[in-house]
Amino acid sequence: MKPFKQMTILGVGLIGASLAQSCKKSRLVERIVGFGRNAANLKKAQERNIIDSGSTDLKTAVTGSDLIVLCTPVGVLVEQVREMIPFLQDGCIITDAGSVKGPLVEEIDALMPDSIYYVGAHPIAGGEQSGLEAAGVDLLTGAKCIITPTANTQTEALQRVTEFWAEVGMQTMTMDAHEHDMVFGALSHLPHVVAYALMNTVASVKTDNHGDILSLSAGGLQDITRIASSDPVMWRDICLKNKRPVVTLIDQFQETLANIKTLIEQDQADALQKTFAKANGHRGKLVETNT
Amino acid sequence: MKPFKQMTILGVGLIGASLAQSCKKSRLVERIVGFGRNAANLKKAQERNIIDSGSTDLKTAVTGSDLIVLCTPVGVLVEQVREMIPFLQDGCIITDAGSVKGPLVEEIDALMPDSIYYVGAHPIAGGEQSGLEAAGVDLLTGAKCIITPTANTQTEALQRVTEFWAEVGMQTMTMDAHEHDMVFGALSHLPHVVAYALMNTVASVKTDNHGDILSLSAGGLQDITRIASSDPVMWRDICLKNKRPVVTLIDQFQETLANIKTLIEQDQADALQKTFAKANGHRGKLVETNT
Question: Is some CB atom of chain B closer than 8 A to the CB atom of A202?
């Protein structure tokens, strides 16, 4: 594909820095500018040759770029787009890495002038770690990237953005933005909320002789709570932006759990075993389809 | 310590077979007899020199043994003790590997004749795998083993059993049986129930274009649901045997989750971030105390 002249990455953290490294490796862009609030972080990224220059000033950072990639938390993303529009050159393409798509895509679409093009994307990568230090050229390679075009999406921009994420090394696929939010609400947002809630519940249990029971735990608890180590600000924003699907999914989960509780209370051994066996089967399928 | 002459292991699965291998390695017992319902499994264990002989007949399996270790699911354990008592020799010591202690310890204590001694134990080992194939000589090494003596526990038997689990390579510690059930209800039983419920909830989500969303998932879901691959019969029995603590803990978890849901619904960004950050801190402590 024809390389972009200058890409600005907003948010040089786990996803942003990994993306920059992949772009450098594949020579997808001629120049990379980093934007962020933390000058020391930008300096570090520049010293490590992850970005070519960095700025804490949005106007400076986006001026002259023909590709903007928003890797900032989904809570600030729309405001940043609104703020940068006056400084963007004609033909500039914007894409993002936000974990929520429906409301973001609608709001950003509505902001777009005629000569600026936005195509929503969600690279499914990352983990409980965050920040520049955890970034790496392999993070995005082979992972899925969901592209969420709308009726307003310009065909050529869609093609350019899809090619861009594919050249980064990702498996691109297209999905409706609202469908995306329900699917990843279930696969990712609900599990994070559950992990945070479980971690807080377990840590609050005290007995006569054990004010702190965590030191007695085995491996199972560490795995199930791993994603409770994820960045609180990022997940606060995701839950608030994807409110409706997340609340619906919490309701569904609470109902499923309440049913299991009833089976336990009523000693319904067969039905309980059947429920657990069903989960067993789903987990087997999950592992199978992901290896 | 003075070795036992003959140990019978009930249930030659993950824990039973691992224990047998550890005992062989440390020459803790002169002879190991396996008991189970599955003759083929016993034969395999004998061929691999994990046990010296095996029997599907309880009388045959326990006759002549001075140590009995119950590694069968907690739902059948008390009945098996009741059934074996007529065939046990004087001075015989019984211990177990059950994940629930309170009700089991009380029921087994009440069954004990004068010359037979029971000391409850819970080796904190295992994982989502089960069965002979997953067993290994290292499974128990270095892990914790909770010993749950009661007012009825004979001092010498307590000492022998504690030494036994220590010589197997485990870190032994003493705990009240009911306290044990609340602590491990929180650290282990609740997380399993949550994992099963989460797996079933996520797998039931369908959208217009995705009848099966599991193929779209990333790594986070696999980790949080890992223990949903655990044996349904074993966990059915644990939940039913430890009913009161498990139900109480499900209630506490549901309340914590409902609070998070309210914060999301009401857009309480600061409180939501604080809740997630608290979980973050607990998880950090959990990892720290377990490495």
Answer: yes
Cβ pair A217:B187 closer than 8 A: yes
Please give the structure tokens belonging to residue A131: 């920040």
DSSP symbol at A99: S
How much is the ipTM here?
Answer: 0.92
Q: CA torsion sign, B239 to B241 to B246 to B248?
A: positive
- Give the Å distances, CA to CA, from B106 to A269, B101, B153: 22, 8, 11
What are the φ and ψ backbone dihedral angles of A231, each rounded to 5 degrees? -60, 115
A4-10/A29-35 β-pairing: parallel
Helix extents (H) in chain B:
14-26, 39-47, 58-62, 77-84, 102-111, 155-167, 177-184, 190-204, 219-224, 232-241, 243-265, 269-289
Of A10, A164, A157, which is closest to residue A82 (Cα–Cα)? Answer: A10
Range of the domain at B283: 179-289
| CATH number for A184 | 1.10.3660.10
Q: Is residue A156 within 8 Å of residue A65, measured between CB atoms?
A: no
Percentage above 90 pLDDT, chain A: 86
pLDDT at B279 over 80: yes
Based on the fold, state whether residues B143 and B235 are members of the same structural domain: no
Of A232, A250, A282, the CB nearest to B276: A232
- Using the beta-carbon criterion (under 8 Å), do A273 and B200 form an inter-chain contact? no
Instruction: Choose the final residue of a domain: B158, B175, B192.
Output: B175
C-alpha B23, offset from chain centre: 19
Look over chain A and give the mean of its residue pLDDT values, rounded to a whole number: 94
Rounded Cα gap, residues A226 and A290, in angstroms: 18
